[in-house]
Amino acid sequence: xxxxxxxxxxxFRYPVHFTTGVFDPSNLLLKTVLVPAxxxxxxxxxxxxxxxxxxxxxxxxxxxxxxxxxxELFDLTGPVLVVPGGEPVKNEPQHLHDVQRAIHDAGLxxxxxxxxxxxxxxLDVVGYAAATAHRGVRLVRVPTTILAQHDSGVGVKNGINxxxxxxxxxxxxxxxxxxxxxxxxxxxxxxxxxxxxxxxxKVALIKDANFFDFLEQQAGRLAGRDxxxxxxxIRRCAALHLSHIATAGDPFEQGSSRPLDFGHWAAHKLExxxxxxxxxxxxxxxxxxxxxxxSYLAGFLNxxxxxxxxxxxxxxxxxxxxxxxxxRLDAPEDPSCVLRGLEEFREHLGGRLTITLLRSIGEPFxxxxxxxxLVVDAIExxxxxxxxxxxxxxxxxxxxCLSTRGSS
Length: 408
Known about the structure:
By secondary structure, the protein is of the alpha/beta class. The protein has 18 helices and 11 strands.
């Protein structure tokens, strides 16, 4: 056989910064990040989440003022582009096209910068646009939600939803830099605040039992919006996430094992079934509860550990069940059955089905077969636990934290 084979290794390096008031002209962090590649100022396009603009009046003016103050180093190319936030921005291709058009019209090159300010959905869309323009324009992320600051915003993925499937189109493209500004978190709704903690529970369960202990100890403060404690959580989660990307041996997920997606096969399907009325963090909480309960019922995870997991989710004000989990469980091939999410997840991974389960807190393993009847048992058990918890929860708190329960 006549063949030439070549191995190629590429090293990526990017910083994750932590600050407050990133667009205050006296804060020099962004100035040090947006370094010109030549003698002329670097071109920069800003894309901002509309919801963040509404919550932080004058944000666009602050960005423009910062760029004007430091105009010797970077040039704001045209007006700040404001796009919708949340999952709708990933569902409508026009929003992606708007960002791509702005990159084109600004005359950006591969040494220019696109700076995305917003939640995870906006970062995904802008990241996809930046990665595909010129095959890669430098992306600076400024995540504005808890979920984005410690999870999606520090990772190497981007994407949009298509053909009724979450993240069907996307690329692996590390950012140039990430800037976590804790000041943005103060305006999050209670629902988004609590939802942001679900990925912290997930990463603790698969990576760090001591961190899980910390979350248990600080659950009351986290649910009560204690800023300094949340900052500790974000830093630890970001470090664990980055370490996994760098050391697990598969940063671009060429294989089928994806421990960081623990609980996500059901979470992604639940988001789809609720037409994204269920927040990603809420869906992840339910997915984590489901796969933890399955691990317990299958005999892998002992009962005390399982009860600790469910108790922590409840203490954080996170849901463990929704009506959609129980829909059409007698028809696994029905598109509206959550069990269909297993096949969709396998297809997304490629190759054989690989689902992360737990042997203990901090000790995951890969399972390649999932028993559908046991998943049904886990869902029914969570429904009972959920009903008992609701009965013991003050009505006002329940309505605030779990407002999407039972949506259809």
